[in-house]
Amino acid sequence: MSEENGKSTAASASSSSDCAATAAAGKKRKYKVIIIGAGMAGLSSANHLIKNGCSDFAILEARNRVGGRIIGIEMGSQKVELGANWIHGVLGNPMFELAMQHGLISIINIPKPHKVVAATEDGKQVPFQVLQEIYEAYVCFLRRCEEYFLCQYLPPPDIHSVGEHINLEAELYLNNIDDYKEKHLRKLIFECLLKRETCITGCHTMDEIDLLELGSYTELQGGNIVLPSGYSSILKPLCDTLPKENIILSCPVKTIHWKRKGRVPSGNNNSDAILEEDEDDIDSDDSDKTVTEVPIGDNPSTSDNSLKHCTSNVQIECENGTIFEADHVICSIPLGVLKKHGQTMFAPSLPQYKLESIDSLLYGTVDKIFLEYDRPFLNAKVSEIMFLWEHVDSDPNADEEEYLKANWYKKIYSFSKVSDTLLLGWISGREAEYMENISHEVVAEKCTEILRRFLKDPFIPKPKRCVCTSWSKQPYSCGSYTAIAVGASQDDIDNIAQPLYSSPHQSKPSVLFAGEHTHSNFYSTVHGAYLSGRTAAQILLTPDSPQEIVMESDTSDLSSWIQGIALE
Questions:
Q1: CA 146 to CA 149: how far, in whole Å?
Q2: Mean pLDDT to the nearest integer, 178-199
Q3: Are 349 and 298 in contact (CB under 8 A)?
């Protein structure tokens, strides 16, 4: 079962408009603002607009539901989250504020007992003090990696990635241990923790993550908060404030046509020609908005002509042929989709600097495996089993498909208890993408084999149900979340977030960008998406003269500070 299946806890399609029905009924197609995507960024933009008196907008959502990468389903009596899982941090987190405001967080926070068991492939359990020793060393190494960004240190020669740096530190640490078996055991724990880190970061291997940029992500204080009713329960209060007719579902966007006036590259015979000519704009000498420049290689003869007779700045062409017009568009399309379709989705095409930044950033795959059982079989005190796989070197000359077929499951670093009869495993990178293409029966059988091997118990039952996510295969996500790859930087995130203006003297941009991939400190998080959506809406709301803008209090509120202490 993929994340699009099952009973979704997001708002149902019946509560909103459908793109085909909108077209057939001849409903409104021209708006002041069109928001593309009803994930957290899009819903945040819409809420900010409506709170400030702007209801002339529409959200175009490709799926038949809202929520994007936030979705929950029922598994037996349990609700499970197939996408976003935790509120990351309390202080200054707008998602925590929103959850508190709507009673989605239990003030009485009774921590569940957390006992982790680590085992080797032959079923031997690691002494807890050894596990704790290596975990503490690993956290120390990871913090040192973050310091390169925060303190502007220079790394050792030829060390460019987080993976390379942690492996170097681990090697130096292990050199102090003489006993081979003790050294090897600790090395397996380091490797397991690095696999875990790939799921946190959203990559195939930590060798892909830029060492100098790791510290650019800002961690909010207060730990990870789980909503008792599931993360997807936060969608309802956001949707309840929006007019149902403003959300148009099952409406994939094919092309975003936007007006742009810019000078033709100097190689053209008529070097002063203007694209999308407008007499009022020709004399403008306000050239500080460089986003209006024509990228090298653009040819005015092949530029988009769809807007020649259109009074709006932007025209949205949907896959079913429906056309919408708007003065402004907030594009919250995920980075994975921009990577796949960004070259062709915009007409004229996006500026070259933006395309290069889209290409530079990493957008990895992280999937979940849920195993549901009829009865409990794990020791009641154990909450997680870590798998210390023996390292397998991939032959550079071997076929990658064959390697993945034989070893994909070795990327599963642990199974943790969601409840006594429900286990959750995580898998990332190319192994996750491979898993998405095999049957859930095969996944269930392999997971049963793993549990029996590591727990040394041949009688562990097969699950009655196996649910796997498939974020890479989903056409409207094409992956999970953003990370900064080796050679990329925060500047790339800022480049993607940069709005596009139709003319140099235009006061408000025609195309704005939102989503977790556009927040330079909170990339990969729901609160990053939320804040980026609100920022985009605020740009459009800001008047030429100072005027009151309604903003939620989510940074220095005393109540959240007190609640943060209580939850700590």
A1: 6
A2: 97
A3: yes
Alpha carbon 305 to its chain centroid, in Å, reads 34
Give pTM, 2 decimals.
Answer: 0.87
Q: How many Å apart are CA 218 and CA 203, to the nearest integer?
A: 18
Alpha helix locations (H) across 388-512? 400-407, 429-435, 440-455, 490-497
Name the nearest CA neighbour of 291 among 524, 499, 83: 499
Per the omega criterion (within 30 degrees of 0), is the bond before 94 cis?
no
Q: How far apart are CA 386 and CA 278, in angstroms?
A: 64
What's the CA gap between 315 and 325, in Å, rounded? 4
With beta carbons less than 8 A apart as the criterion, state whether 191 and 182 touch: no
Q: Which residues of 546-555 are buried (b: 16+ CB within 10 A; e: fewer)?
A: eeeeeebebe
Measured between alpha carbons, how far is residue 189 from residues 106, 124, 125, 416 in Å? 35, 13, 12, 17
Strand partners, 21: none
φ, ψ of residue 38 to 5 degrees: the values are -110, 35
pLDDT the model gives residue 271: 32
Token pair listed for 165: 């740096």
Q: What is the pLDDT of residue 14?
A: 40
Q: How confident is the model at residue 246 (pLDDT cuts 50, 70, 90)?
A: very high
Question: In 272-428, which residue ranges form alpha helices assigned H by DSSP?
Answer: 335-345, 352-360, 400-407
Look up residue 15 and give its DSSP letter. G
Strand partners, 425: 369, 415
Q: For 437-451, b where at least 16 C-beta lie within 10 A, e where not — what string?
A: eeebeebbebbbebb
Q: Residue 485 corresponds to which tokens in the numbers above?
A: 């790859």
For tokens 């990332």, what's the residue?
A: 428
Angle, in degrees to the nearest 10, between helices 526-541 and 40-51: 40
Could you tell me how far CA 410 lies from the centroid of its own chain? 24
Burial of 305 (C-beta count, 10 Å sphere; 0-12/13-18/19+): exposed
- Cβ–Cβ under 8 Å, residues 339 and 496: no
Our CA dihedral for 197, 130, 133, 450, rounded to 10 degrees, sits at 10
Paired strand residues for 487: none
Phi and psi angles of residue 99, each rounded to the nearest 5 degrees, phi first: -65, -40
Average pLDDT over residues 314-339: 97
Phi, psi of 544 (to 5 degrees): -65, -30
The pLDDT, as a whole number, for residue 26 is 59
455 and 123 in contact (C-beta within 8 Å)?
yes
Location of structure tokens 């408009």: 17
515 Cβ contact list (under 8 Å, min separation 6): 37, 39, 41, 332, 333, 334, 335, 529, 532, 533
